[in-house]
């Protein structure tokens, strides 16, 4: 029963993200809306990590499975991608570097926060 409640929480957040994105007057990814809702719920204490831990660990450990449809779509449109290979390569390199830098900054911030918390 615990797994079903965790799935229900995660799917409810996804549904709420879809609704929020549909209501916005500009295009906005529903997955980002759902993640922001999750962040808000975790920070405010409305949702505890234990409420979704097992199911989120499962989803994270099987994340590569969710990239298969995107990879298939790229292969289906290989002629388009091959005609635009240079801009595509530049975008991939720049976005990879940006993700790396933002992740490093986030980890650094968390480590400093934890160190400060332990010192107090």
Number of strands: 0
Order of helices and strands: HHHHHH
**Mean pLDDT metric:** 90
Q: Biggest sheet, open or closed, and with what strands and sense?
A: none
Characterize the structure shown.
The protein has 120 residues and is mainly alpha-helical. It is built from 6 helices and no strands. The termini are far apart. The model has no long low-confidence stretch (mean pLDDT 90).
Task: Sum this structure up briefly.
With 120 residues, the chain is mostly helical. Helix content is 80%, strand content 0%.
Features:
mainly alpha; extended; 120 residues; 0% strand; 80% helix
Mind sketching the topology for me?
Layout: H1 2-23, H2 30-44, H3 53-61, H4 68-76, H5 78-83, H6 85-119
Helix pairs in contact: 1-2, 1-3
């Amino acid at each position: 029963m615990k797994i079903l409640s965790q799935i229900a929480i995660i799917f409810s957040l996804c549904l709420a993200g879809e609704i929020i994105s549909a209501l916005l007057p500009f295009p906005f990814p529903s997955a980002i809306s759902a993640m922001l809702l999750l962040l808000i719920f975790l920070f405010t204490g409305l949702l505890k990590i234990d409420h979704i831990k097992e199911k989120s660990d499962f989803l994270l450990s099987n994340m590569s499975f969710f990239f298969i449809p995107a990879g298939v779509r790229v292969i289906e449109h290989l002629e388009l991608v091959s005609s635009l290979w240079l801009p595509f390569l530049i975008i991939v390199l720049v976005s990879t570097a940006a993700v790396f830098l933002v992740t490093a900054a986030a980890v650094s911030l968390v480590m400093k926060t934890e160190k400060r918390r332990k010192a107090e």
